[in-house]
């Protein structure tokens, strides 16, 4: 078993015939916490889906947990981009987390045999374990719809962790949270990386809440990607070269980084109207 | 036959079971109540009540069409509901919710229009549309009961097999898909299971009143708890209560059973809702 | 065909009712309130039966009960529209009362032979009197006018209710008003195609229009057009084939238009 959770060499991903990202080189080691950044439409979600085998790889070689992406399957924990559960959702957090463990198992397991009973006990124990790992024990039994964004995200992370994945892919989990919640979730993820030795790829818009917790970042732009430490990548020189257009990076007095002038990638406008009309 | 209600409960219950047709009616009602409550629990969770109602309405063209071509009535029910389930399965859940309901509504109206046409073409339907639409106590044979039992066992077995993946696909479709759960196939499969349950239930409660057993008991149960196993059990318990009470009271009354089942179902729902509202406000005040 | 008065009445009332159904229906599909329309239509049936039981004109019962349910949905529903589950439970109970009333009606003096029930369920467009059809046409036209009058703010509050509220549009009032219009259309159309089938006239032409275009006013016009076309075709065909009930024919055409529109939209990609 190699030390790399992910190894991409010259990978390109296309959608509807259009190249989204090309020629991506990336190595992610075990237990590394890596942020995937870039403007809207840069291809962050698409690249994540390619790693999960949900979108095909157009060129290059991709290895996820020493296998082809499609086969890595149940060893990768995935938290897709969500709008959160609406207030009418009554299912409890603990049940949702439990589904992460056995939701894809067909049939009912009746606790008649000793084996079935011990399996049930083990499942229940694991569920409680992972819920306390994310610190959600106090509200896991309440309906999801009643919880705050940060609380929901913790439970969703628990769901993604319950099968002890060696790689966790989180697609914009901090999006709808306020700043304190973002920072505390980032800290939680850092703790989990270290204690569970799981590599984490976190897609985000803003690197600032994650500063200090990250190992490295991957920055997508202009159809390509560059990876390295925060100080290496988020500089005017690197980003300008990535985009082929002048980009500035400002350092504020409270230590935040602001990227100015990055061109937005063209994206489709169909979605919002459809969702509004529904 | 003029059954009268004495105030001795044991005596009354004994009266209920004097005649075979009532025993058959109770057996049928029990089977159907369990089936409807179980499938209905998922239906309410998936917010597919409209599809459920449409399927129940398909019983009407099913029965009248079967009478027209000489097929057994219950076969007509199953065929019509199954066909409607397939037609509705073409419209996907989630996005474009508005147009999806237009499809369901069109299917419903078309089915009813066809049913009326069949009825008009074949004037020899006993009792007019009322019996089909609103259910009847009389005339449930042992053969029917056995057929219902068969359908119920098959449907519940199917439901048991897909129970967890269906729950996963319902509450968390994206992650379920990433975990290999065939969400689209399950959506279509559930509609077919729903069609089976509805076709079976319609034969007892009538096409328009299936909701008394399919929606109200599960909705009431889900107000109380969202724990899957407990909720399902509660849903079945409520459904049996409504069905038995409705049948029992209707026996001693000149008024139809459909009225009693829907009223008890509605009453149960309203009372539960009221209790929840008062305990919630009391809890909120205590917290402050 | 038009030399007969009952045919002229049917076309007059039918055309205006169809216009109203198509117009209001387009919004109902947009706002995902088709199930509410279904509930209202079933309740309309009960209203008519209730009126017949008491001995008053059925139309009073039709309008009274549908407007009452519309008010209930508007009051107790969530801001975005009532929960389908709750609507289903309430209207199932009302149907239960309906069957009680049918039984009472059948055993009472006004009972007749169940014709009232069948007519209310499946329509009796050829039995409209001239006065009745003129009234129905007038109401239909009024509904169309009212809908056009509120169409712009209604569109705005449907697409973006928060922004609309900020701009001073009374979204809750509009929502209630729309439900009221839906109730009136439902009661109207019950006389034409019957309580059980009017959902088809409400949803199928509108659904077809939504598949073909996203532009509002074009969509409304298409929807009304399909509804009227279905009505005319249905009436004509049922006149030629007497054993074909007119309501079934009308709905069949409406459904056919939907199927054609859906196929065309699918093929267009």
Question: How would you explain this protein's 3D organization?
Answer:
The complex is a heterotrimer of chains A (278), B (288) and C (269). Chain A has 278 residues and is of the alpha/beta class. Chain A has helices at 44-51, 69-72, 93-102, 114-133, 149-161, 179-196, 230-233, 236-243, 270-277; strands spanning 4-15, 18-29, 33-37, 59-64, 76-79, 167-171, 199-203, 216-221, 224-228, 248-251, 257-260. Chain A has one domain: 3-Layer(aba) Sandwich (Rossmann fold). Chain A has a six-stranded mixed β-sheet, sandwiched between helices. Chain A has a three-stranded antiparallel β-sheet with strand order 2-1-4, with helices on one face. Mean pLDDT of chain A is 84; it is low at 267-278. Chain B has 288 residues and is mainly α. Chain B has a domain at 17-209: ABC transporter involved in vitamin B12 uptake, BtuC (Orthogonal Bundle). In chain B, helix 13 (228-251) crosses helix 14 (257-287). Chain B is globular. Chain B starts with 8 loop residues before the first helix and ends with a helix. Chain C has one domain (5-268): ABC transporter involved in vitamin B12 uptake, BtuC, CATH 1.10.3470. Chain C is built from eleven helices and no strands. Chains in contact: A-B, A-C, B-C. Chain A binds chain C through residues 88, 273, 276-278, and chain C through 30, 32, 83, 159-160, 214.
């Amino acid at each position: 078993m190699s030390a790399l959770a992910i190894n991409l060499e010259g990978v390109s991903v296309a959608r509807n015939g259009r190249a989204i990202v090309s020629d991506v080189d990336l190595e992610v080691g075990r237990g590394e916490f890596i942020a995937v950044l870039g403007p809207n439409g840069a291809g962050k979600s698409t690249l994540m889906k390619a790693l999960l085998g949900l979108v095909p790889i157009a060129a290059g070689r991709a290895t996820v947990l020493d296998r082809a992406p499609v086969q890595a399957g149940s060893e990768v924990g995935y938290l897709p981009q969500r709008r959160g559960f609406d207030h009418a959702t009554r299912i409890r957090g603990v049940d949702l987390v439990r589904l992460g463990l056995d939701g894809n198992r067909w049939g009912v397991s009746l606790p008649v045999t000793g084996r079935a009973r011990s399996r049930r006990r083990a499942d229940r124990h694991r569920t409680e374990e992972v819920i306390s790992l994310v610190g959600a024990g106090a509200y896991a039994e309440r309906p999801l719809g009643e919880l705050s964004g940060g609380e929901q995200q913790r439970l969703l992370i628990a769901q993604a962790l319950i099968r002890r994945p060696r790689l966790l892919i989180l697609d914009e989990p901090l999006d709808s949270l306020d700043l304190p919640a973002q920072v505390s979730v980032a800290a939680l993820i850092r703790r989990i990386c270290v204690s569970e030795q799981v590599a984490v790829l976190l897609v985000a818009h803003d690197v600032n809440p994650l500063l200090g917790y990250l190992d490295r970042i991957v920055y997508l732009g202009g159809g390509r990607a560059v990876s390295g430490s925060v100080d290496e990548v988020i500089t005017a020189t690197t980003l300008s070269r990535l985009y082929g257009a002048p980009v500035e990076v400002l350092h504020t007095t409270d230590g935040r980084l602001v990227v100015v002038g990055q061109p937005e990638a063209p994206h489709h406008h169909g979605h919002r109207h459809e969702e509004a009309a529904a | 036959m003029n059954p009268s209600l004495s105030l001795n409960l044991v005596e009354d219950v004994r009266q209920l079971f004097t005649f075979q047709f009532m025993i058959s009616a109770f057996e049928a009602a029990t089977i159907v109540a369990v089936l409807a409550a179980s499938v209905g629990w998922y239906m309410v969770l998936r917010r597919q009540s409209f599809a459920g109602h449409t399927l129940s309405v398909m019983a009407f063209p099913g029965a009248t069409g079967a009478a027209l071509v000489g097929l057994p009535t219950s076969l007509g029910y199953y065929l019509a509901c199954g066909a409607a389930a397939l037609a509705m399965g073409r419209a996907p859940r989630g996005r474009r919710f508005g147009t999806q309901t237009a499809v369901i509504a069109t299917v419903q109206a078309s089915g009813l229009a066809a049913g009326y046409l069949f009825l008009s073409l074949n004037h020899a339907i006993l009792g007019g549309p009322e019996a089909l639409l609103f259910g009847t106590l009389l005339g449930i044979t042992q053969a029917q009961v056995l057929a219902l039992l068969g359908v119920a066992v098959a449907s519940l077995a199917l439901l048991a097999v897909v129970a967890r993946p269906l729950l996963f696909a319902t509450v968390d479709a994206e992650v379920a898909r990433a975990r290999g759960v065939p969400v689209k196939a399950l959506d279509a499969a559930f509609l077919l299971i729903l069609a089976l349950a509805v076709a079976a239930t319609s034969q007892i409660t009538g096409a328009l009143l299936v909701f008394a057993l399919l929606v109200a008991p599960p909705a009431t149960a889900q107000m109380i708890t969202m724990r899957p196993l407990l909720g399902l059990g509660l849903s079945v318990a409520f459904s049996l209560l409504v069905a038995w009470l409705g049948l029992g009271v209707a026996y001693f009354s000149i008024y139809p059973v459909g009225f009693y089942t829907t009223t008890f179902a509605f009453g149960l729902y309203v009372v539960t809702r009221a209790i929840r509202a008062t305990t919630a406000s009391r809890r909120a005040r205590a917290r402050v | 065909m038009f030399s007969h008065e009952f045919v002229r009445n049917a076309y007059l009332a039918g055309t205006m009712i169809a216009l109203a159904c198509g117009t209001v229906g387009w919004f109902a599909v947009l706002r995902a309130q088709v199930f509410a329309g279904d509930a209202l239509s079933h309740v309309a049936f009960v209203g008519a039966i209730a009126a017949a039981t008491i001995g008053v004109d059925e139309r009073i019962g039709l309008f009274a009960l549908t407007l009452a349910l519309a008010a209930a949905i508007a009051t107790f529903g969530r801001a975005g529209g009532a929960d389908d589950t709750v609507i289903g439970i309430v209207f199932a109970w009302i149907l239960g009362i309906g069957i009680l009333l049918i039984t009472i009606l059948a055993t009472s003096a006004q009972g007749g032979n169940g014709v009232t029930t069948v007519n209310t369920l499946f329509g009796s467009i050829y039995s409209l009197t001239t006065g009745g059809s003129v009234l129905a046409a007038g109401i239909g036209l009024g509904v169309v006018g009212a809908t056009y009058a509120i169409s712009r703010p209604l569109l705005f509050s449907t697409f973006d209710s928060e922004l609309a509220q900020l701009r001073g549009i009374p979204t809750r009032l509009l929502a209630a008003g729309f439900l009221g219009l839906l109730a009136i259309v439902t009661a109207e159309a019950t006389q034409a195609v019957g309580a059980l089938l009017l959902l088809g006239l409400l949803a199928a032409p509108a659904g077809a229009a939504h598949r073909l275009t996203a532009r509002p006013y074009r969509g409304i016009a298409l929807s009304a057009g399909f509804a009227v076309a279905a009505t005319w075709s249905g009436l004509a065909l049922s006149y030629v084939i007497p054993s074909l009930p007119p309501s079934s024919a009308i709905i069949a055409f409406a459904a056919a238009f939907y199927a054609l529109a859906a196929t065309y939209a699918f093929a267009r990609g």
